[in-house]
Amino acid sequence: MSTGAASVASFNGLFSIPALADETKRHGKKCILLWLCGAPSQFETWDPKPGTSTGGPFGAISTMLPGIQISQLMPKCATIMDRLAVIRNMKTAPKEHFQAIDALTRGNKPRPPFVRPVLGSVLVEQLGHLDRAIPQFVLLDPCPEGNEFRRFKAGNWAGWLGAEYGPVRAGGEYSIPDIERPEYLSEADYSDREALRLFLSRKFENEQRSEAAASYNAAFERVKGLMSCAPLFDLHNLPEDDRRRYGPGAFAQHALLARNLIENGSTFVMVANGMPWDNHVFQHEMHQMLVPELDNVLFQLIEDLRLRGMLDDTLVIAMGEFGRTPWLNQARGRDHYPKAWSMAMAGAGIKGGSVHGATDELGVDVDDSHVDNRQLFATIFSALGIAPHEEYDLPGLPTFQRVEQDASPVRDLLL
Amino acid sequence: MPTTSLKRIAKFRLPSGILGASITEDGLWLVAACMNGVYAVDVADKSALKIGEHRSYASSAAILPTLQTVVTAGYDGTLQWFRKTDHSFIRQTQVHDFWSWDLAVSPDESMIASVTGQYLAGDYKYAPAPEREPSVRIVAADTGEVLHSLTHVPSVQAVAFSPDSQYVAAGNLMGEVRIWNTTSGRQVGSFVTDGFTSWGIVKSHCYLGGIFALRFAANSQHLLLAGMGPMRDPMAGNGRQRWEKWAWNENMPHKLDETHKDESGEGLMETLDIHPDNQRFVMGGRLRGGAWNAAVFDLESGNRLATLKTGFRITEAMFNGDGSRLILAGLKGQPSKKRGGQFPDFGRIEVYDVT
What is the pLDDT of chain A when averaged over all its residues? Predict the structure, then answer.
């Protein structure tokens, strides 16, 4: 046996140890979630029904995958379908935004009084590097409101994992204030003050067993990180050509910012823009603008990550909290529809060129292989090398698994 | 001030939602642009015959009485001509890459105007990007030859000719109205109203609304506009039912009147028609909140004269030639369940006596 062959043999041997293989698989994995809050129409994105009564006014176009069509509003994604995995038979339960946002960001329905962490918090806990200055979980959302999403944003994101796994929120009107050291304060004075603050608060935290103080300290640590990497959050520091390619809208600009943050060490970036997809009225007037923007953002993001050699390690997810009704209401809109909807992923651990499942002729119902939120989360975790059914170590709490009820990942979407 | 009384004398259904319509002078025949095609409708007989299709929704329709021709526009960007007598297809012309939102025929029947425009993000706050194709096309009514290609800011959602056929006006998402001379194609006026456009604060940052209908008054110097008043959340669709009257052909175009306080509810208004007596006009649309979704107003004073609550979204309100009839066309929500193996009809037509 040659030396080379021996090396290969021993290398393969390493991967036969499950824990080591998992650790290697998850090493360096990251995620960008394009959170299409409000819920886009599957008919105007991934599952068009041209020429049918429910198809709406937009047509369908062929993609590079034989026999697969998507909305005519997505010509750029049609050219990179070999990198995308589309699920066309999502079927979930919650019909209202808040409950659906909860289920599709946390992976399961609530079990009060316990708060399940959102996807970003879990990924940061599993994959992140809290010792880095750059925030590991960033929410970019320039819209300060967002109806039910606003209420959700005000809630507890990290749940039982704790505040250090929650997001830093930035973007637009949420550009981060007060993270520059005042000029009157020298570097040395700042360090002295910070050391004193840390000593006193740690002492208090330890002696009083104060979770509030711990949370306060976690926040300070993050602010220190933010101070050192503030330029990464400034849209104006991004290359002009990149900004032009991604498009002028706030969502597109923040998707580019997400790429930049991931490239510089963040683990999970969630890009939202309020709740623009909730088109009970003006469905087609809004989707004619939102879908082309999404089409371009997905194309640019996936191609950028690929060209930078980052796509194999970075999972890109584009989804909302449910779909829209096949039938149009009187107000020229589509209403909430969790029974049959679509979403897309690309990158780390996901098999490109996959279209999983189908809906019926009018898009009313899904086929037997339908996917729910738990299966989706099992798929996402598996793709990133995270054990989906692992139990949380939660002193004083009931037993929780990362994904409950043994929900299986969608195997045909995984590499 | 004229008084107005409206009495419903007929109602019937079409298989699909009606997005635009046009009636003959006697009010007995109409052509309906529907979500699933084009229908010739015998109003007296309450019967309809599908005579054609666009590749997407048919969005608007017009009858050219002298030419005995019907013209329809669609979300496929085409205009289609049919013979009124036997419904046979004459020609199709691709006038836009994107939708035709609306069409109008000049009163002298020489020109057809069609407007287009896709709303795409133009800046960080989602102001519309500049047009990618001419937003207004004027074509010859008898041949389809393009006479003028005119520029505007997308999306351009409503168009109308002046009674003397000298002017054409088009209104857009951002509340901007541009007026051109139809002979030269030269822009002769413009103004902007902030009465119809909303920038979303609550759900999202973007623009929605705009001008959905416009009509010249008999003097060709005044323009009526219709749509929905501003909202913090445009996607709630709960802006005030709204019309405005503008003197456009002056050095400083200015608003003459608007929906009077306490005379409107909530909902998008998307059709206008001026009564043949030139003293009244009708505005119709969807009822979101309030007591009516079609109302007749005094053109001079702006006072509301009569109201209707139809229970369906009105997309076209039309007086017949002598003003004795008001015909309303529109749609209910698309049915979600089949009955007897098919989806129930959801297009609506109602006919009213006007006194």
Answer: 89
Considering only CB atoms, which chain B residues are within 8 Å of A288? Answer: 118-120, 155
Residue B274 structural domain: 6-354
Predicted structure pTM score:
0.91
pLDDT at A195: 77
Interface membership of A265 toward B (CB under 8 Å): no
Per CB-CB distance under 8 Å, the chain B contacts of A286 are: 206, 208, 235
Total tally of structural domains belonging to chain B: 1
Q: Is residue B40 part of a domain?
A: yes
Give pLDDT tens digits along chain B (355 positions): 678 999 999 999 999 999 999 999 999 999 999 999 999 999 999 999 999 999 999 999 999 999 999 999 999 999 999 999 999 999 999 999 999 999 999 999 999 999 999 999 999 999 999 999 999 999 999 999 999 999 999 999 999 999 999 999 999 999 999 999 999 999 999 999 999 999 988 888 899 999 999 999 999 999 999 999 998 888 888 999 999 999 999 999 999 999 999 999 999 999 999 999 999 999 999 999 999 999 999 999 999 999 999 999 999 999 999 999 999 999 999 999 999 999 999 999 999 999 9
Q: Say yes or no: A313 contacts chain B, CB-CB below 8 A.
A: no
Q: Is residue B158 part of a domain?
A: yes
Chain A residues in contact with B125 (beta carbon < 8 A): 250
SS3 of A230, please?
Answer: helix
Residue B1 lies in a domain: no
A363 touches chain B (CB under 8 A): no
* Residue A1 pLDDT class (50, 70, 90 cuts): very low
Q: Which residues of B touch A (CB under 8 A)?
A: 16-17, 35-36, 55-57, 75, 99, 118-126, 129, 155, 200-206, 208, 233-237, 268, 286, 288, 312-313, 331-336, 343
Residue A347, beta-bridge partner list:
A315
Quote the pLDDT of residue A180: 65
Q: Which residue in A has a C-alpha nearest to residue B237's C-alpha?
A: A281
- Smallest CA-to-CA distance from A298 within A323, A316, A284 is with A316
Say whether residue A415 is in contact with chain B using an 8 A CB cutoff. Answer: no
pLDDT range class, residue A5, cuts 50, 70, 90: very low
End-to-end Cα distance, chain A: 31
Is B184 within a domain? yes
Cβ contacts of residue B91 below 8 Å, gap of 6+?
B80, B81, B144
Q: Are the Cβ atoms of B236 and A281 closer than 8 angstroms?
A: yes
C-beta atoms of B343 and A53 within 8 A? yes
Domains and CATH numbers, chain A: 25-175+250-413 (3.40.720.10), 178-233 (no CATH)
The answer to whether the CB atoms of A276 and B336 lie below 8 A apart is no
| ipTM for the whole complex | 0.96
Distance from CA of B337 to the nearest CA of A (A): 10
pLDDT at res. A198:
74
User: Is the Cβ pair B205, A274 closer than 8 Å?
Assistant: yes
